Amino acid sequence: MKKTISILFLIAYGFTCMAQDSSKTFHFSVGLGFMPVPTISIAGIDTSYNNSLSIAPVLDIRNNNGLGISYSPKFVAGGPSAGIYAHQVTVGLESYNKELFDVIADYSHYFFTGNIGIPSSPITNELYFSSTYKKPWVMPTLTLGYGFGTLRTAQTSKAVNDVNVSAGISHVFQKEFSEAAFSLVPAIKLNAGTNEYFSLLRSSRYISANKNYNKVVKRKKRNGTVIVANTQVAKKSFSLSNAEAELQGSFEKGSFSVRPGVSMFVPFSSGDNAVSLIWQIEMRYSF
Question: Which alpha helices (H) appear in 105-167, and where do they start and end?
Fold first, then answer.
């Protein structure tokens, strides 16, 4: 109940503040996102990890400068407990119409519902920054993510965090028709991070959307207790995680858009030798 009240308060407060201005200044959009999310199934002493379909409706309101707030409930369609597993509220800036830079800078809070099929995480907050310099033919891009929260056990609770950095290059291939536009954006990136815990952080999709996340994170839960997955890693360390080859697409016609994407992650760690393919699709309609 407290989580529901908090969600409703944040949404109501954000939308009330924005509604004080004229309707021409702010723009509403609704969307629907699809991507994988790892699920856990336990049968006796056996534990299996799989990817299930995550479905996330989105309600978004922003002003002409890109400042705004969005709310997204997240549903899992498979696993041992299909249903809602988290609510995400995001406040911040999304700016794509400037001449030199695309910029995203925002804060998100994740309200987990305790769905038993989804890996638990102490990381419930995210500070996210992403920027692409658009002037050169090969465009440099940088993403920074900082996740934080509280790790609670029967005896203690302590503040924990994870840090992620991604840097790479990309190029836009674009074609415009009479009433529509199509684009493809291939990119190559290097991803680094502390990778301590499972989380839903956007800056580490190789964890949040990967059934093999336990091969990446350094600390995981077993029987409700956090343990160090690799005894050689006794304290937090920041290191290169993987190389990423990404392809993002976009089709826009009027107020409707579809944005599919796929990424291949090639790990650097000898303990994680599995190449991961992670996809996502977002559909959106702007009013």
Answer: none
Residues 6+ apart with CB under 8 A from 233: 218
Residue ranges making up the domain that contains 211: 2-286
What is the tally of structural domains in the chain?
A: 1
**231: pLDDT confidence band, cut at 50, 70 and 90?**
very low
Confidence tier at 185 by pLDDT (50, 70, 90): very high
CA gap 40, 118 in Å, rounded: 6
- H or E element that contains 115: none
Average per-residue pLDDT in the chain?
87
Rounded to an integer, what distance in angstroms lies between the CA atom of residue 65 and that of residue 280?
26
Q: Looking at residue 12, which CATH number applies to its domain?
A: 2.40.160.40
CA nearest to 139, candidates 78, 204, 187: 187
Q: How many CB atoms lie within 10 A of CB 189?
A: 19
